[in-house]
Amino acid sequence: MSTPPLSALLTGFFLRYLVAERNVSPHTIAAYRDGLKLLLQYAATRCRRPIEQLTLDDFSTSIMLDFLNDLEVTRHNTPRTRNARLAALQTFFRYVVTHEPALATRYDPILALSSKKAIHPVLGYLTEQELGHVLAHVDRAKPNGERDYVFLAVLYDTGTRIQELLDLAPQDFHLDRPAFVRVRGKGRRERLCPLLPQTARLIRRFLTAQHRPLDDTQPLLQNRRGLRLTRHGGRYLLRKYVDRAARSMPSLARRGISPHTVRHTKAMHLLQSGVPLISVKDVLGHVDVKSTEIYVQSDLEMKRAALAATGSPVTVSPRGSRLPSSLIAWLESL
Fold first, then answer.
1. What b-and-e string marks burial along 39-71, b requiring 16 or more CB atoms within 10 Å of the CB?
2. Which residues are marked as active site?
3. 128-303: CATH homologous superfamily?
4. Which residues of the chain have pLDDT under 70?
5. pLDDT of amino acid 226
6. Using the 8-state DSSP alphabet, how is residue 187 labeled?
7. Options 2.30.130, 2.20.25, 1.10.150, 1.10.3470; which CATH number does 6-111 get?
8. What is the pLDDT of residue 284?
9. Domain boundaries of the chain, sorted by first residue
10. What is the Cβ-side half-sphere exposure of residue 159, based on CA atoms within 13 angstroms?
11. Rounded to 5 degrees, what angle do the CA atoms 75, 81, 82 make?
């Protein structure tokens, strides 16, 4: 039996498996698409053939390893990005093996490739003073100034991921008491995020000023062309106001402040205010509380550093180095 062409397997993977069988989100499909596109381009260069002429025989373990290395060396991807690409590609080859069992021997080594150990960066977040300083530097009287303020305020108040926020429409908000917003997160899981009364009033005034009804299905946050604000645009807006605020607050000049930092900020502020961990988990939309425990660990490290900085008059007398002649006596002295 002949092996089906690569194009047929790719078509089946995206249209039948991902869409019809698994019903994954458009963002997941885009992630798989980007990973496979990069691999196809790399393999075509290595094999010196057009992408349309590539076959399954061209994808060996050696090429896969070289491709993963190229992601880090040439494209300067982090190990986390490299691991995400590998996971997406392994999903495709697992699909191939399922539908073509005769290819299992060839692709089992690819499916066995391990993720690379990645350094987990220190969890960054903004203090209340820093966040307030950033918000204060939004000129709300300028065109799109109120939109920018709504973007930053809702991003913090809900603790959403940036794409979750950009996907929101006015119809997702319930602005009467108790105010909340319906958020669609990873895996198409929905959750209700409570809104502070002042945030609900802010959104209501924003929509009123734009003459938009509360049941509007268009994106809440739009660019100058009336289209959905992009993730790149959202990151740009945050960076612009952080840089502006950093001129008078040097602590904001540190690197790595991103929309996800604002999400971390919300989680840390909730935890420091005494909100139970399980409630923080629900606000953030984590499936497992283990994902939320990083905030507890980070908070403990910060408290430990603060205690160490204050010093202590407590001293411990040095333990004698001479061991008792009796082993039992030594054990009892511990």
1. bbebbbeebeeeeeebebeebeeebbeebbebb
2. 161, 186, 260, 263, 286, 295
3. Intergrase catalytic core (1.10.443.10)
4. 1-2, 118-123, 187, 291, 294-328, 330-334
5. 87
6. G
7. 1.10.150
8. 80
9. 6-111, 128-303
10. 25
11. 75
- 216 and 98 Cβ atoms separated by less than 8 Å: no
Q: How far is CA 202 from CA 62, 74, 149, 191, in A?
A: 56, 45, 9, 21
pLDDT, residue 120, reads: 62
Q: What are the residues whose beta carbons fall under 8 Å from the beta carbon of 202, sequence distance 6 or more?
A: 149, 150, 153
Bond before 318 cis per omega within 30 degrees: no
DSSP string, 4-46: PPHHHHHHIIIIIIIIIIS---HHHHHHHHHHHHHHHHHHHHH
Eight-state DSSP code of residue 230:
P
Output the pLDDT for position 132: 94
pLDDT of residue 270: 86
Query: What's the sign of the alpha-carbon dihedral 57, 32, 261, 295?
Result: negative
Cβ atoms of 182 and 190 within 8 Å: the answer is yes
Side-chain-side CA neighbours of 118 within 13 Å: the count stands at 14
